[in-house]
Specification:
The structure holds two protein chains of two kinds. By secondary structure, chain A is an alpha+beta fold. Chain A is built from 14 helices and 14 strands. Among the domains of chain A are: 46 residues, no CATH class; 172 residues, Cytochrome-c3 Hydrogenase, chain B, CATH 1.10.645. In chain A, the strands form five sheets. Chain A has a four-stranded mixed sheet with strand order 8-7-6-11, covered by helices on one side. In chain A, strands 1-2-3 form a three-stranded antiparallel sheet, with helices on one face. In chain A, strands 12-13-14 form a three-stranded antiparallel sheet. Chain A is globular and about 65 Å long. In chain A, 62% of the residues are buried. Chain B is an alpha/beta fold. Chain B folds into two domains: 143 residues, Rossmann fold (3-Layer(aba) Sandwich), CATH 3.40.50.700; 119 residues, no CATH class. Chain B has a five-stranded parallel sheet with strand order 2-1-3-5-7, with helices on both faces. The longest helix of chain B has 13 residues. Classes of the chains: A alpha+beta, B alpha/beta. Chains A and B meet through β1, β3, α1, α3 and α4 of A and α1, α2, α3, α5 and α7 of B.
Amino acid sequence: MNPGSAGTAPNGTSAREIVIQPVTRIEGHARIGIRLDENGNAAEARVHIMSMRGFEKFLEGRPAEEVPGIVTRICGVCPWHHHLASNIAVEGCFGVQPPPAAVLLRELTLVQAHISDKVLHFFFLAGPDFLLEPGDRSVRNIMWIARKSPELAEKVIRMRYNGHMMLEKFAGRSIHPEAIVPGGFSKPMTARERDEMRVGAREQLDFARYALDFAKERVFPKFDPATMELGRITTGFLGMVDPEDGSLRLTDGVLRLMRPGGSFHEFSQREYTDFIGEHVEPWSYAKFPYARGWGDGFSMDLENPCGIYRTNSLARLNVADSIGTPLAQAELSEFRSLFGRPAQSTMLYHWARLIELLYACERVIELLDHPDITDQRIRSEVTPRAGRGVGCVEAPRGTLIHDYSTDENGCISRANLIVGTTHNQAPINMSVNRAARDLIKDGRVDDELLNRIEMAVRAYDP
Amino acid sequence: MPVTIAAEVLSGCTGCEIALLNTGDGFLKLLDRIEIVHMPLLMDSKYFGPDEGSEEIDIPRSDIGFISGSIRNREQLLLARTMRERCGVIVAFGTCAAYGGIPALINLFDNKDLFRRYYRTAEATDSASSPCEVVPPLLDRTFALDEKIEVDAFIPGCPPHPDSIADALDRLIEGRLPETPVQSVCDACPAKREGKGTVQKIKRFLKNARYQPEKPLGEMRCLLEQGLLCIGPVTQAGCSGKSGCAPRCIQARVPCRGCYGPVRRGGNQLLDMLNALASNGIDTKNLPDRLSMLRFSGAHSMLPRQVRKPSS
């Protein structure tokens, strides 16, 4: 069914192509194609994104205030992040600022949503690669973990569930929320709701500490030199930081684009087009963002990459000077002393993800302790008008950019989106290429080897 | 023998699968009663061996097939057909599979418009021709599942409430089909209604509804009667689950947007709502973009393709 059928090289000679389809334990549809040379060594690998839905197009004409409830459906795993970025973009179009309590409630829900997401990824999706003995692919999943380690499975299933239920209880919906609205938030937090969420948040923090201890004991020791080299590439990094002190921010910050050597540019959310370009390849529906601002163009050549930067957990920790909460800051210091800054090993995304989990849990408690969080002034009235707005937040998978323009009725005339995973398209391709070239020799492949190549994808939690 | 289940996500967002996980302890208990034989999101299910190319898709046989997402490209069409062939019962899981869902909004535009915008005129994009190697070609629009394959049961919702998913699974495991109640969101909504004739005009949702945050929802005036476009009257109930909670958006004090699709299969949320408003003497002329009342149910040729503006 595919136009580029397996087995025929572009020059017409017969070559072997290894196909992994679908890439599994990720959200979305991807295919890996690996072309082998005449000696059976991997010559080139590509990760094809197989579907597109076209949000940028069908947002056109929609009343801008309705859009934050539409773009949630870009991703069922991170709807809160699209929801908030979209609202910020609409507010830019309409020229309105949310009241302080709304700013707090938005960050609270966003950070809370990070918690469930990180538990989902580490334990449900990537975990089976590290928690189970290498073996048959039919058991490499959370269902098998549930059978083998029921206590652990019960704990992680409950923690992910609790996070969702805390959001649901306060905001009505946890998947595909409607509670963030242009101008603020749809409902205030009562003192009772705050107190209830505090109880749950303390339990989450305990779990985050447990998860990091557990990983240091059971998972990270498996990061032997070969695993640390798996899909290793050297790139720049993009993430959000606090404009004052350069600490990690998940919303309401500036963007920092770091070169592989560690120097960086900082820019406001609106300026993203000066620094980021998007390249198109004929073999993937996803585009390939790159650092246009560096002026070297775009290349995924492993020996001489151009314009390549990464996003998601490792990127955020690399670009941030510090983390504003004590437990996560202590972990960041240890991480930096072990791996330097910027850390480049692709497998370290997992470690960074758990440090961020700790930050998110600490940050939720900080926000709940803020005296303004229960303030009843939660929405400024908005007036539709023509304008342009850019909203950025850090989604689990990376810097999320929503850029809208509106017409005089306040309906969308133009929308441009760059979502977290899209930033990592080029790095994922390079990591898979690296892993395939390192691992596939003399035409020998088996299930375990192919899974290691997929692990290079999963690290990015695409 | 446990009941075997296969699950595929087509043109969707995985939110339905996250809702399945949100059955919480129920998910663990479920694992004692079912065997998941195919589910790329959670397990390493492959369509073929590494050397077998992409001509055929293999999915193990199973009793029940859950398909979320709508059908947008040729690979998804092939997957849907293969699932139909290999599964005893096919369940359209979620609103995208049942009615097209949000992805069917693209049916307002043609693929040329989409590609021109996405690959050639977007702000940061280096203009190029549209991808056509290896990636499966798009169909001319987004289809609900039953436009392309026979469907035995529907679990609507964007996403469906975990209670509905658990209930449906219970019935399916017992060899019965899930039931969908013919009830509207209003039937499950506690907001206070005072009756006809109180609203003349519907306004955009630019400031919050009027309500007392500490008071129960039953003391909040119906959002439609407050003059907000709430399409609960023409939307199937179910989002509140079994716990006696209010509809979910109403809990957040925002109007219903219709994510469960029409009250009856085959209903048209836009026409039904316009009729309901007209019969109450409510003026809708000032509402922009009335078509987006079909934002969740635009497949089945409900959404018309817009006439393209002259290109600038």
